[in-house]
Amino acid sequence: RIVIHQSVWLSTFGPSLIVVDPSTLAARRTIPLGKSGQTGPATDMAVVGDQLFVVLEDDAVVQLSISDPQAPQIVQTFSAAELGIAPRSLDVIEGVVYVCGRGGVVSVPDLQVMLVADDVVNCIADVEAGMVACIGRQALRLPDRQFIGSASTLTPGPIEPGQLQTLAFTRRGGQGALVGLMNPQLRELNATGATVAFNDVVRRVKFMDERLWIVCDTGVWSYRIGNNMLEDPQRIDVLGARDVIKFDGKHLAVVGVFGRAMYRIDADSNGPGNTFVRVQREAAGLASSIIDTGGQRILAGMLGSAWIYQIGNRADLTSRAMPPAPVEYSSGPIPR
Q1: pLDDT number for residue 335
Q2: By the 8 A CB rule, do 72 and 17 touch?
Q3: What is the pLDDT of residue 298?
């Protein structure tokens, strides 16, 4: 995940928060939030005022002060036991931070329980019917759990004067996901013109610069929003992206299991547009590895993305996904 606060680039990497130097994309400062190998990775962030909240997957939520964003300071940590849930994600509604995960929804820092559930709550949102929680592919009203609409996640769009707020939804399936637009009643605005199918894992959806951005394992897509339509599709070709944000008027910041990158949107005196101008390679999400029988190449990663490393050379992302473990190659090279 990534946030830009007071023009400072803050990003997660493993169980740590890093302050990124935009000129080199190297870490200026690293703030450990948990012990590597003992806590989950940082999977979500939310900013309220000068407070930053970070989820350590299934383990904790860490609250930091970013009054000086160049030097974040840990304020307190809420363990999974204190939260009463295994945390996965964060939502901010009217300045209140809500933690969603396996077991329900709870607000921080007051630890008010909003919902108790056996399954994973993907997110909560404030719609016309009130607060709703997305569980599986259902949006259920709180607290009576009445079915309001069909969505795996809901992302509120910007509020325009005199207009109803639009929400983006994802609806996950076995082979991918649908992404589209909904009204406050959680009805699709245009099932043919404002809903797009992705044969990919959709990692994040966000509104930015009058476009809808969809971050997938095999690329980042954006669509212009107009007249209840998703138009002018554009794609950034990148493997393993997890988040994207506007860094300044000319560049996007992109993070993922590949590391970090700066992307020039339009051509200028420094070079062509639609181009990565800087990349900091840092492999993340490495859950398993295999080596070929010749001992020359190593494939490491997780289901959905992987790095391939040739002994004596550099590591590169590969479009070949990690096979389910355990796996054994009796002969020949690692398949690409």
Answers
A1: 41
A2: yes
A3: 72
**pLDDT tens profile 161-177:** 777 889 999 999 988 99
Cis peptide, bond prior to residue 272, ω within 30 of zero: no
Instruction: Compute the distance between CA of residue 184 and CA of residue 162 in angstroms, rounded to an integer.
Output: 14
Of 238, 182, 176, 234, which is closest to residue 208 (Cα–Cα)?
Answer: 234
pLDDT in tens, 15-69: 999 999 999 999 999 999 998 778 999 999 999 999 999 999 999 999 999 999 9
Count of CB atoms within 10 A of residue 145's CB? 14
In this structure, the strands spanning 195-198 and 73-79 are unpaired
Question: Hey, CA dihedral for 297, 43, 303, 336, is it positive or negative?
Answer: negative
Distance in angstroms (rounded) separating the CA atoms of residues 224 and 49: 29
Per the structure block, which two tokens stand in for 93? 């509604």
Does the pLDDT value for residue 151 go beyond 90? yes
As a residue count, the chain comes to 336
